[in-house]
Amino acid sequence: DSRGPSPAAGPQKEVIPGVDVVVAEGDRVECGPFKAEVLEVGGHTDGHIAYFFPEVPMVLAGDCLFTMGCGRVFTGDFPRMQRSLQKLRELPDETVVYSAHEYTESNAKFAMQVEPKNAELQERVAEVERLRTAGLPTVPTLLAHERATNPMLRWDAPAVQAATGQREPAQVFTAVRKWKDTGKAPSTAAKL
After folding, report:
1. CA pair distance 37, 39, nearest whole angstrom
2. Which of 73, 41, 42, 37 is nearest to 55 (CA)?
3. What pairing do the DSSP bridges indicate for beta strands 69-70 and 49-53?
4. What does DSSP assign to residue 185?
């Protein structure tokens, strides 16, 4: 059976090989001495989840949130992905963010296209270059850094709104994510 040793316990949004316990928003799980809260962060995929460990604080964000980026929208949709990122953005500043992949260098280059005058972003890009040149990782990151420099979380920043020609959070996010996907900047002909 491709679903694992026995049918998964609980409702399942996606068939994921090997799943034996299905979790949902608000569930609590134990990982060694730590307790995590399950956050549904669909958008990348319909059933995507993250684990938030409030005592640390730390989030295992999977493919929802990356350092200076986010996952592509595959089986979810753009408004849902924006709402999921909003949920992560609301965690405490000191939350340590672990993503599933390190795409930081390409994300940093893209972030500079969106917000080239962001001084915190400029500093962060220099730090990323230093770390990667030394062969060091850029994951994990801190949520406070992401709020200040990640264009996928900055739908309310005037510079990002201007770059997209949009104001509504889901529309700003969608424009930024599609820009990253296609390499084509949005037309900013729309009046803010």
Report:
1. 6
2. 37
3. unpaired
4. P
- Per-residue pLDDT reduced to its tens digit, 31-42: 999 999 999 999
Q: Tell me the mean pLDDT in the region 108-114.
A: 98
CB within 8 Å of 68: residues ≥ 6 apart: 104, 107, 108, 110, 111, 124, 128, 146, 149, 150, 151
CB 142 within 8 A of CB 96: yes
d(Cα 151, Cα 186) in Å, to the nearest integer? Answer: 14
Return d(Cα 153, Cα 191) in angstroms, integer.
22
Q: Are 148 and 121 in contact (CB under 8 A)?
A: yes
Q: Give the helix ranges, DSSP H, for the chain.
A: 78-89, 104-114, 119-133, 143-149, 158-164, 169-182
The angle subtended at Cα 108 by Cα 135 and Cα 118, nearest 5°, is: 130
Q: pTM of the prediction? A: 0.89
Give dist(CA 127, CA 117) in Å, integer: 16
pLDDT in tens, 131-168: 999 999 999 999 999 999 999 999 999 999 999 999 99
Closest among 101, 52, 38, 37 to 72, alpha carbons compared? 101
